[in-house]
Fold these 3 entries.
Entry 1:
Amino acid sequence: MVQPEVLKKWDLGIGEASGFQVSDIHAYSITNFALFKFSDGRYVLFSAPGYKWQETVKQQVIGEGHSVLYFHTNDSAKVEGYLKFTQKPVVDTSLAPASRVLSLTDVASEFTRVLYESEMTSEKMVIATEISNQMVKCVQEDITCVAAIGKLANHHGYTYYHSARVAAYSIALAIEMGESDSLCLETIAIGCLLHDIGKSKIDLEILNKKSALTAVEWNLMRGHPEMGGDVVAGSNLDNSALEIILHHHERLDGEGYPHKLNSGEISKEVRIASFADTFDALTTNRPYQPSCTRFEALDVIRHRFLNQLDKGCFKAMISIMQKATKTA
Ligand SMILES: [Fe+2]
Ligand SMILES: [Fe+2]
């Protein structure tokens, strides 16, 4: 528990403070602005910028009668940003997995859009972790829920929704292949959520180009795994997640990029992400290619990509989609 501390230099005049509902604070979030309690006629610093919240602290503050904390109006933009993005990961957990995964994919795509338009920060990494955590719980409850996400409208375009769907498919693949450790699943999810983050450094005109890319543009595109590694450098991202970002375009026949790794050098997590990445690319409309159905996509993979992608993932995806068809 943070001990409230009176700091004279933080004292605020009444006209300069705005209220902030403690119930709006998300348990795992970081508030990057100072928050104050109002007691005995003055504002007392409660938490300094960078404070990481826990549910127990939040409940204790409310229990002490402080349902509202205050911030300096100079921090209004930060507070607005916090409310807009930190709250997003919280989806209604009472929803059935098939509906919840759609809400989570929406939230994750909005989050990806924000990531593309701003810098990666430790606060955003906390949000990515929370989204991944909720997605893992959802898919663990019902693996067939992922069959619904291909039908989602791409409000923000292919690029933003793609990462969210790849995360959901990858969690399902990992579970179907026997992974039950939630932390391991969360690592896969966060790696997938961020797998194309390097594309945020590429011009949208190139990303959304309907015609074939020129050699120069294609070279730029092929740089996105390593640019993604640069974006998350310095964060505390797990190594398996970082590998997904760096290697999701490596292929088992050694013809992938950027490092032309051979099959022995490609981890299980990367194989899962690569498969989900290809599956999603085939099953959704992209600027230059109309989509196939799920089973058509599996057929394309069988005929064209099975020497490049993991056969275990292929079998697992067939199994998931068959289960989904049976329960539909
Ligand atoms: Fe990629
Ligand atoms: Fe991708």
Note: The chain is about 50% helix and 10% strand.
Entry 2:
Amino acid sequence: MLNILGKPASINVRKVLWTCAELALPHQLEAWGTGSLSLQSPQFLALNPGGLVPVIDDDGFILSESNSICRYLADRHGGGRLLPPPSRERALVERWMDWQATELNNSWRYAFMALVRHSPLHQDASLLDEGIAAWQHNMGLLERHLAGAGPYMTGATFTLADVVIGLSVNRWKATPLPHAALPAVDAYFARLSQRPAFREHGNNGLA
Ligand SMILES: N[C@@H](CCC(=O)N[C@@H](CS)C(=O)NCC(=O)O)C(=O)O
């Protein structure tokens, strides 16, 4: 049985849960990072020395990093769904997954920590302005991409690029900041929200 270790509220854990739901993949969830299941315990650090979720245990195969886990699950169980076999089409899916994990993730961190987590370490007004501007810049790139493409990130087919970008758009919309008008992003978000798995793990009230 596939075992997913991680808090169900974590955006990176939700990528894995959404992927499992799209693939109708049986799994169980151990809510590491909540209650007594500490990410700093020796038991957890033996699985991921970085002390971060998600981690999976797939019949003894241990893997961390949410995007790597999603790729692994789609390759093993998707039969071409969510992630094409090696090809230019796949390269474009992975391009957006990498952009999400590097450029987009880095741009939202300060504003998210300040405005949603209310972190005392993230309350510098000018750094917050810079953070919001960086996040808005990347959302503008996404808007221009979706306005010229679609209906999904890499064209006609829903893929893992939509799982990782969809959760990112959800975070953007759920964070209380002045939102620029992004009609193509809004239409994309509404399209994704028609999927039961996104309503359960993405557009579910959590940022
Ligand atoms: N690059 C990692 C990042 C994982 C990550 O940042 N996980 C967060 C939750 S979203 C975490 O475990 N934070 C530690 C904590 O909550 O104590 C991935 O994509 O899996």
Note: The chain has eight helices and four strands.
Entry 3:
Amino acid sequence: MSKTKGLIKTMNDDKYYSRARPVDVRFHGVCYYCGCEAESKFEDFIPQKIDIEFYLQTKEACPFAIVQCCKECHYFLMNCRSAVIKDRKKYINKSIKRKYGRALNIYERWSEDEFEDLSDSIIKSIIAGMKIGKESDDRIQFSGYEYEIDGTIHHKNEIEVKIYQVFGEEFDDFRKALQYASKSYRINITVLKQRLIDNQIDFDKAIKTYHAELEQKLLEKQIDKLSKEFALKHKQNKNFVKSALSAYIQINPLLSMPQNLDLIYQERIKKLTTTESKIIKPS
Ligand SMILES: [Zn+2]
């Protein structure tokens, strides 16, 4: 084992690799992973040279390819030990998201038509963030290109085109879907984004649960307000009226709140007028 190791170390490692050449000349000099300008001194060796021995010994599937790559992707890949091109692309996308997360957020969050009331300096910094965010997004979306290794054509990275649905409207871009949903369904974009994270990027579900909770809050507010007024008018305990009203709403969902309160009055208070006390006590 140590003998093999020593042997490999003394050889020129590059001999194990074949260069992946873009089929379309327009991609010569383009980073396979992100579409930026590639630099010859930052090529990506798959697998990493330190893993050559492992792949030679185990005969694990491995392309032994040299792929055109930009300086930053090369830097990102320094800690990626996968020899699967698709996984290396995923690793780069994660790294871009991590490094440019703030700019990506600005790009997702803002559109030019919202600049109206902002100061010039704020607009300037948002535009700068949007520019970096868009570049980062383009890099993430870049799906590579067809390339040839020793006469065999390899197809480009099949990045699945994800379609985002917002109640029947289709978008092939998360940002467009997010901005459309935020405007159409009147949800703050940051709040909506968090809801999407909580709901596995299901727009319909995120919007529905948000509105349902909003409705519930409004309902509770209204119950509280009407119960307070009713309790004061009929000299009742407010908390009890509140729980009675909530129960009546459940039983008589077709009646309005004032109608339910009227029913409470008829059934629970008026009948007691002949008794000693009109106060309803919780049972
Ligand atoms: Zn790159």
Note: Residues 31, 33-34, 36, 69-70, 72-73 surround zinc ion (CB under 6 Å).
